[in-house]
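#struct-pred

JT: dropping the chains for the assembly here, can someone run the whole complex?
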Amino acid sequence: MRDGEQTPGVALSPTQKLSIAKKLDSLGVDIIEAGFPIISDGESNAIKMIAKENLDAEIYGLARTNKKDIDAVIKAELNYVHMFIATSDIHLKYKLKLTRDQVIEKIIETIEYSKSHGLKIEFSAEDATRTERTFLKKIFKTVAKHGVDTIDIPDTVGYATPQYIGEITKDAVDITRLPISIHCHDDFGLAVANTISAIQNGARCAHVTINGIGERAGNTPLEELVMALKCLQFNLKLCTNIKTELLYETSRYISKVVKVPVQPNKAIVGDNAFSHESGIHTHGVLNNPLTYEPIGPELVGRNRWLTVGKHAGIHGINFMLQEYNMKPNPTQTKTILSKIKNICDQGKQITDTELFTIANEIIGQYKENKLVKLIGFSVSTGIGTMPYAFVKLNINGKDFFATDYGVGPVDASLNAIQKITGKISQLYIKEYKLASISGGSSALCEVTIKIEDASNNNISSKYVGEDIVTTSVKAMIDGINKIMLKKNKSGK
Ligand code: KIV
Ligand code: ZN
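RK: done, full complex below.
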């Protein structure tokens, strides 16, 4: 949580921090580094609130090697301190302006002070991986001798290779016989590999963040590490306490609170991690998911999503249409497929709702029984007033209306829609894209929306129109109707 909040642009209120801590605790993490108590009163109060919550996880606070920082940890009513000081020559010369001996002195003094106040200590030699190895070993020996409880090895600028991380982890284990932690940054995309290497060489605790957020390129992503340890062949008799089926939900929650989107192709929790586009892949997965899925999506709380695209094939298209109760004959499927490829060859993306429309044009006669109908809506926006929307829908023959605010008129309208449709299904808008497809202020706009329901059914929907708000509302309603069709068919 502490390094996660160091993500550029992220700052959390005490209430947000508490809600994240609870979420991490339900996920099953063993330790939460709740923050850096010295940095502000708000931070200190947030940490104190978290500590008082009596979570199953141990709560740690970060401190430099000085009395003021340690006092702040004590004031936040913590039992554990994560104490750090840089040990690399670059940091000593340009940041701390201390000699190696002075660093050792500071470390001993602060360990003694912390212990005299009953704190348990995890000690980090910041920039350990760029610290001269003999000096690093001396640090390990010194802190162990003076009674720290655990030692962490930070790869502060993500500079280490898996092999080197393995070697220095082994140094720490052999010299100290203490529990060793590993803290990796992802500057070269090696954070997971480096963390695993440390674990293979004796580390027993990994510092991680949800979605890999953190300073610069971030830290080791919890979800990737946990799934790699669980599923890959490392010959490690290890397990974590993480409830993997909560990984996706937790990732989405954190992304929403910290306002940092997850890249679509991110392993485990990215939008595309369990979606299949090519015909060859969808055919394989439909016969046996093991063909193209190294792990089942349900293991991390997700659903599989087949999408339409340039590489689509007969089996995938038929399967997707069946989800809407559509059964084209072989000639119709071929025509649908060639129409799809034609559109994709023009560089255009096809959404689920467009697939439905194309198929319906070809099969004909399919009368879509729309569960949700838009009766009307109005919005108000301007300067000095909060954008506001009124929406009236008919669901299964019954009228409902709702009002809501938003950051703009589109957001307000979609929020009002969700207030109503939340009664039949909790929906989450994963993506909203707006494009202008002709020039001038009367340009046609194209809105593409991706939504997901509480059972992780996904749908993409596109609408073209003249008015941005109306087009967005129609794309959303269309998407909701298709997701309801899917839901009714699958029973989920
Ligand atoms: O990356 C780092 O070195 C840190 C320390 C505070 C451990 O976050
Ligand atoms: Zn860090």
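JT: nice. The radius of gyration is 27 Å. The first strand starts at residue 31 and ends at 35.
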